[in-house]
Amino acid sequence: MHYPKAHPKLITLAVASACAAFIPAYAQQATTEDSRGGDIPTTAVQQVVVTGLRQSMASSLNLKRQSDGIVDGIVAEDIGKFPDTNLAESLQRISGVSIDRVNGEGQKITVRGVGPDFNMVLLNGRQMPTSNLGDLNGRSFDFSNLASEAISQLQVYKTSRAENPAGGIGATVNVITARPLDKLGTYSSIGIKAVHDTSNNKLPGDEKASSSTTPEFSGIYSTTSKDGHWGLGVSASYQERNLGFNQASVSNGWRGPFRGDENNWGTIPNAGAPGSQNVVNHPKPTDIYEVPQNLNYSMTGVKRQRTNGQLTLQWQPVKELTTTLDYTYSENKLQTKRNDVSAWFNFGPSASTWTNGPVAAPLVYTEFIPSGNSDIAMGGANFATKTQNKSLGFNTQWRATRDLKLELDAHHSTAESKADSPFGSNNTLGTASFSRGDTTADFTEDFPVLSIKGADFVNAPQQVTGSVFQNGYMKGDVSQVQFKGRLRVLEASNLNFGVGAVNVKNRSAFSNQQRDSWGGATKPSDYPSSLWHADSVRQYFDQLSGSRNPNLFNTFYTFNFAQVRDTVAKASGMPEKYLPKNTFDTDQRTEEKSKNLFLQLNSDWDTALPMHTAIGVRYEKTDVVSTALVPTATSITMVSANEFPVQFGAPSFTTLTGKYHNLLPSIDWDMDLRDDMKVRASYGETIGRPRYDQIAGGQILNTLARIDGGTGSQGNPALKPVKSKNFDLSWEWYYAQNSFFSVNAFYKDLENYAGQSKVDATPFNLHTPVGGALWNEASASGCGADTVCIRNYIFTHHPTAPGVTVTGVDSSGNPSGNIVGQPGDPVAHFQITTFSNQKKASLNGLEFNLQHMFGNTGFGVSANYTYVHSGLRYDNGSTGEQFALVGLSNSANLVGIYENDKWNVRAAYNWRGEFLSSTFDGAGPNPNYVEPYGQFDLSVGYNLTSKLSLQFEGINLTNSTNRVHGRDQHQALYVTQSGPRYMVGARYKF
C-alpha cells in the first residue's frame, strides 16, 4: 500500500492547474498537490517545457487524466492569454458542451442535452448569481459578461462529486482566475486589439454605428515578495464592439395548429366550402396545419461596452497558511436600435398552397385585401441595458498537521441587470402606411418572401400607430460560506469533509406601458416627410436563399426613434404614454436558504491493476420563501349574462413558502489497465433547482370570470428540484506524449420536471352574485338556470339593492347595468394553474475524444463528437401542450494547431445539430427547432520577440447564418444573418 493521491478542493486544484499552465519552463523543487490531493514535487508533473497552445492542451490532458470522474478542461496558453475571446466559445470545444449564440457569440451552454437552467457555474469554486433580461426568471449563466483575459482555467465536471455545490445536472463549470502566489516574481502583460465586425456594415443608416472597427484593451499584473509571503494580482479589460444582425421572422408565431376540417378564425376554407377553390393541396381532415400571423423583416444594430476587472491579494505568513482576498467586477452595456417592416394577416379571404401532411405547412399564403387600405407596418426601437456582476471573496487554507488540511471560503456576489436608457429596457414604436393590398408570404425557400400590392407612401404617408415601452429588472444575490477539510486516514485513504450554507436571492420585475392605437395615434400630417428615410430590404439578407426573389416587397422606411418619439409625444398630448413607467407591474422576489454537508472517502488500492475509488455523499436542505407583487382583486361584477369580470385595486405582495431536502450519493472508480490506459465508472445523483417563474409566490387572477368561477395562475415554491441519477463509463488511452483517445458513455434518469396542474382555490375571498340571495330568489321565481332571466329579474325587482346598478336598456330591450357580489353571497372558486412535479425523462449518449500531437513537428489536432438521444421528443402531430427536452443535440468539434518558436496557428470548426429550443412560439404551444449550425474560426499568432507578439483572429469566417423553424421546415420562425468578425492585435509581456 502507498499514500493516496487524494481528491482536492476546487481552489487547491486551481492552484495546481494554474502552476501547470503558467510555469512549465520554471519547474521548482517545491511541493504542491496533484489532482487528488497527494503531495508531489512540481517537477514530477512538469515533463513538457514548451508554452503556448501545446502546453495548454497538455495541461488539459493532465487535468482529465488525474481527476476523479469525468472531467474536461481548458487551460490558458500563457498569463493573460486564454484561447478564445469568449468563455462560452471555449467551452463549446469540450465534448458534450453546446452553446446558444446571441449577437453572434456564445451566451449559454447546454451540456449532454441538459439545458442552461440546469448547469451550475462557479467562480473559483463559488456559486455565482445569474441575471439576464432576456430571460427574467431563468437560472442560466450569461458567459458573455465575462472577458477571458484574467481566466487561467475552465473545468467542466460532468460527473457529480460530493464537495461541489448542488445544482448542475448537465455539468458543473468552474471558472478559475489567476492567483499571484501560483508563480513567484513579477509578471505582466498588456494587449491591444482592433475589432472589425462586418455585420455593422449590413445595417441601415439609422441603426449603423459610426465605425465597424472598435478597440479592445487588456492587462494583467502579478507580483510577489521575494520571500513569497505576499502577492498582488490585478487584471483589467475593456472592449467595445459594434455589430448588427438582420432577421426575417414570423415573430408572433404560427396560429393553430388546426385540423384539416376545423372552421375557426384563422383556418382556411374547408374542402367544398366557398373559397376552397383557392387552396392547392388542401390539408386532409386528419392533417394538422398552421397559418402565419405576421411576417417581419428587422435590421438591428447593437453597440456593446464590456469592462472586466479583478484584484487579488494573497498573504502567506508561514508555509502552512495561505489567505486570499479577491474582488471581481464586470459590466456589460448594450445599446440596441432596430427598424423593421411587417405585414399582419387578419385571416380574411385567402389563397394558399400546402405541403403534404400529416403536418402541413403553407408554401405560399395570400390574403386578399380588396380595399387596399390595410397597414404596412414599419416599427422602430431604441433601448439600452446594463448588467453588472460583483463578487467579493475570502479564502484561507491551513495545513494544521501533515495529515490534516482545513479551508474556509466565503463570498458575497451579485448580478444586476436593468434599463440603461430613458426609453427603457425594451420598446417598440409602431408606424404604418395604410395602403396595403393583397399580401403574400412565400415560404418555399430558407428566406420567407413578403409581397405586397398597392403600396402608396405618397397618398398614405407614414404615421405612428401603437407603441410599447417596457422596463425589466433582475438581480441575483449569493452569500455563501464553505468549510472544508481533508484528513489522511489509514494508510492509503483520505477523508474529505465539509459543511456550508448559501443564501440565494432573486428579484425579477417588469412594467409595460402600451398604447394600442394601431389604427393611428395622431394624424399623418403631424410628421414631416424628412423623418422617414427610404431604404431597401434585399441588401440586408444577401446570404439567404430566396432573398433575390423578384416578388420581394423591397421598399421600406427607417427613422430616428428619438425624433419620431418626440413628435408623437407632443402631437398626442400624452407624453407620459411614450416613456416607460417608473413603477413595476410585477415584482417577484425569491429567497432560497440552503445548508449542506458532505463526506467523501478517497482510497488507492494496490491491487494487480491499480485502482482508485472516491465514495461520497452530500446532504442539502433548502427553504424557499417567494413573494410577489400582484394586482389585488376586490370584487366580482356581473356585467352580462355570462361575464363576471374581476375588479382590481392597488397591487400588494403575497407570499408562499416551500422546502425540500436531498441526500446525494456519488461513487467514482477508475483502474489503470496499464500505464497508458484507464477505465472509469461513476454513479452520482444531482439536482437542478426549478426556474424562478415556476416558484414565484404571486397569485394572479385572470380578469374575466364566468358563472362557474374564474381562472388564475401562480408559482409553487414547494416544487422539488429536478433530480437526476447519472451513470458514466469511460475508456481512456494515453497512447503518446500529449495524445489520447477516449470513449465515454453516459445515461441520465431524470424526475420531478415541473408540469402544469390546476388547483381549486378561493383567493381574496371574493363574493360572487351567483348563488346569492337575489340570485336564488330569481331562480326560484321561474328563471331556473337562465342567466338572462335571472339578471332581468334582479334589475326589475331589486334595482336599488346593495351592489345593483341599472344603467338603461340594451338593444334587445333588456335592462343593462352591473350586479356586484356582496358580503353574504357565496365565495367564488377559481381554477388556479400552477406547477407540480410530474414529468420524467431519460437520456443517454456517447462522447468520442481524440487529441493527437504529431511528434515534434508542432502540428496537433483535437477532435470530438457527441451523440445524445432521448425518447422524450416533441410530437409535431400533437396539438396540445407537451413536455419535451429542450437543447438536446449532437455536436462535433475539430481543431487543428501548428506551433513553433515564431508561429502559433489554431483553426477550429464547431458544429451543432438540430435541437428543440422551446415549446412555445408566441402564438401558443408550438415547437422551435434550431437548424444545424457550423462555424469556422481561425487564430494566427507571430512572436516578433520573446516578449512581443502579434495576433490575427477571424470569427465565423464561413459567414454562417441561423435558422429556426416550427413543426415543418417551411414554417420559418427566425432566419438570421450577421457576418464575420476580424481582430488584429499585439501583446507585450514584461
From TrEMBL:
Database matches in Gene3D superfamilies: TonB-dependent receptor, beta-barrel domain, TonB-dependent receptor, plug domain
Pfam families linked: Plug, TonB_dep_Rec_b-barrel
Biased composition (Polar residues): 210-220, 423-435
Name of the featured protein: TonB-dependent receptor
Location of the TonB-dependent receptor plug domain: 65-171
TonB-dependent receptor-like beta-barrel domain: residues covered: 425-957
Swiss-Prot/TrEMBL keywords: Cell outer membrane, Membrane, Receptor, Signal, TonB box
InterPro entries given in the database record: Beta-barrel_TonB (IPR000531), Beta-barrel_TonB_sf (IPR036942), Plug_dom (IPR012910), Plug_dom_sf (IPR037066), TonB_rcpt_bac (IPR010104)
Location relative to the cell: Cell outer membrane
Annotated region (Disordered), positions in chain: 198-220, 415-435
